[in-house]
Amino acid sequence: MTDVRAFKALSLLTTVGVFVVTACTIQLRGGEETPPPQRVQTTGATSSDLARCRRVNSEETDGYQHCKQVWAENRRRFFGKKDGVAASGHDDAAGSTPLPKDQSRVPPGYPLPATPEASKP
User: Which of 117, 5, 62 is nearest to 53 (CA)?
Assistant: First the structure.
């Protein structure tokens, strides 16, 4: 009789173990209820405008000005900039003054590089 009791206990323990492993696996997978990340879809008009603007040259002034606005809007959506930054039509990095390099990582006693202004006559 003890063999039957041991078999039942082992069977119950195995069943509980399988349920625990299954529950942990489902929990670690995250389930199927999380929605996939949404992608920003371009509208048909924007896509057709971009396709048309690939063929516009600077001699077509009306089309060229419109295409500059379309390209600015496309850059704004792509880079995620706010309306005020992209509306000006100028790149931020090109107009800003460069920051001086930080010399704090240069080891003591190491000669500093010559600045371009100092080498000019």
Answer: 62
Q: Distance between CA 72 and CA 83 in Å, rounded?
A: 10
pLDDT tens across 8-31, in order? 999 999 999 999 999 888 877 765
Q: Please state at what angle helix 44-53 crosses helix 61-79, rounded to 10 degrees.
A: 130
Cα gap 87→27, rounded to integer Å: 46
**C-alpha distances out from residue 89 to 69, 77, 84, 85, Å:** 8, 14, 10, 8
Positions in the chain whose pLDDT score sits under 50: 85-89
Cα separation, 86 vs 95, in Å, equals 14
What is the C-alpha to C-alpha distance for residues 12 and 19, in angstroms, rounded to an integer? 11
Q: Identify the sign of the CA torsion 103, 106, 110, 114.
A: negative
